[in-house]
Amino acid sequence: MSESVIAELEGRLRKAMLASDVDVLDALLADDLTFVDATGKVWSKADDLNAHRYGVQRIERLEIKEQTVRVYEKSAVTLTHASLSGQFGGVPLSGNLRYTRMWVETESGWRIVAAHCSVLAF
């Protein structure tokens, strides 16, 4: 698998996050996803989908500042610096974040199995 395929999937993920497109997110996230957010809270796939589905999380701007992709046979790791704004639980948020995502090639395609997010100080 090439880096460009994973970069394209990351682009689909970005668009789905902006649109809260639960169908696309459902297709990109593994059923056993583990996501650690910037506060240290652990999210499941259902948690993430429901945050989008019910408007708990609204991302209004998500600008990719930098992204690297490393592919290893049937897995890949992405490291993304993003600037975003929106709201979470009705509270406005904005900032610069660093995401690390682990993609794995499954029988049904490439899926995110693990992710972590950190807030960048400046």
* Low-pLDDT runs: none
What is the number of helical segments per DSSP (H or I, 4+ residues)? 3
- How is the largest sheet built, in terms of strand order? 2-1-6-5-4-3
Shape: globular
How far the N terminus sits from the C terminus, by CA atoms, comes to: 34 Å
The value of Rg in angstroms is 14 Å
Tell me which CATH architecture applies here: Roll
The secondary-structure class comes to alpha+beta
Number of strands: 6
Which range best describes the helical content: under 10%, 10-25%, 25-40%, 40-55%, 55-70% or over 70%?
Answer: 25-40%
Q: Quick one: biggest sheet? A: 6 strands, mixed
The CATH class is: Alpha Beta
**Helix/strand order, N-terminal first:** HHEEHEEEE
CATH third-tier fold name: Nuclear Transport Factor 2, Chain: A
Overall number of structural domains: 1
Give the percentage of residues in beta strands: over 45%
Average of the residue pLDDT scores: 95
Protein name: Cytochrome P450 oxidoreductase
Pfam families: DUF4440
